[in-house]
């Protein structure tokens, strides 16, 4: 997807993995997390098949600096009996914020969701991330009243 501002948004390719991993690490650190780089690379490689989801990268030009990324997971909405797209991540590099990158990534996620037959694209954000909330509100998204929970499993420890 090419945007009017010159940004290029594409699904991630093998050649993007180095830049994407750095962007994913910056995203994790924004939320005060520090995952292993090896785990992030493994995650990005898993998305190359597109089976469980996909990742998008935004570049300042077709071969320019990576300025943001998004991760979309494919799921189902049982209440509607329809496929559902869940935007798991949306990150814009600090120097590129307020330049339309987040909007371009979100619109590209929305377009992919429609292509896959999803009626909705849904996501969540931290309650204190008011900058992101302003973007989301400007797109006409509905704020959900649902709460998010998670519990640990016996899987790999952090």
UniProtKB/TrEMBL annotation:
Coiled coil: none annotated. Residues 7-158 form the N-acetyltransferase domain. GO terms for molecular function: N-acetyltransferase activity. PANTHER family: ACETYLTRANSFERASE, DIAMINE N-ACETYLTRANSFERASE. The keyword Transferase applies. The keyword Transferase applies. This is GNAT family N-acetyltransferase. It holds the Pfam family Acetyltransf_1. Keywords: Acyltransferase, Transferase. It comes from Pedococcus sp. KACC 23699. Gene3D superfamilies: 3.40.630.30. PROSITE patterns: GNAT.
């Amino acid at each position: 997807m090419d945007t009017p501002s010159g940004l290029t948004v594409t699904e991630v390719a093998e050649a993007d993995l180095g830049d994407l991993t750095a962007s994913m690490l910056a995203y994790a650190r924004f939320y005060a997390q520090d995952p292993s780089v090896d785990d992030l690379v493994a995650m990005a490689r898993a998305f190359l098949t597109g089976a469980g989801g996909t990742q998008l990268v935004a570049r300042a030009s077709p071969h320019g600096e990576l300025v943001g990324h998004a991760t979309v997971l494919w799921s189902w909405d049982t209440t509607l009996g329809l496929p559902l797209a869940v935007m798991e991540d949306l990150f814009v590099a600090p120097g590129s914020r307020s330049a339309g990158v987040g909007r371009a990534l979100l619109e590209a996620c929305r377009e992919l969701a429609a292509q896959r037959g999803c009626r909705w694209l849904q996501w969540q954000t931290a309650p204190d991330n008011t900058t992101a909330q302003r973007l989301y509100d400007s797109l006409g998204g509905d704020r959900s009243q649902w709460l998010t929970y998670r519990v640990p499993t016996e899987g790999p420890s952090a």
